[in-house]
Amino acid sequence: MIERSSKARMLAFSLWQFFGRKVVCRRPSLDPDHPNSFHIEIDGFLTSRQTRDLQPEVVIRRNVRQEVGLVHELLHLNLIPLGFPFFRVWADDDATWNLAGDIINNCQHVPMLPIFVSLGYSESEFLGPSRGHSEFELRVFEDINKLKPSLFIPEEHGRAVSACLKGRSVKHEVVWISQMLR
Q: What is the pLDDT of residue 1?
């Protein structure tokens, strides 16, 4: 599925190795508006401290953006071996859950984009088409944009994202997966 970039194929292979040969990629027939996604199981990992128990999974739409979509989602997973934190979120409602997800996802995009480009893909391919954003979402994006300089360094990334979530009353825990592996 990764044909355009040998570097991206090496990335996929390195993640396959890192996660104990347990990376799952599904390509179901999804609604075309359904976004690509990735998922890890932090709770199982916290008990075992084994990367395979993170059970990483990526879900990719069947469309012309399959390859760049897969690479994009793999880059989210790649943040773990690079030392970036992940976040456990507790939300009482969908709005808070979605807000937390948007903050975390968009903050992760900051260190991912230069890597995506270094793999030989164009910056314009990094994100697929998106629906319009509400004024609230645009304000959140502005706040994330102000955080950009601190989002490239794992420790600062963790502090900045945590502060952003806390500032919006999102209950969360910062999980330093890579540090737990040492």
A: 86
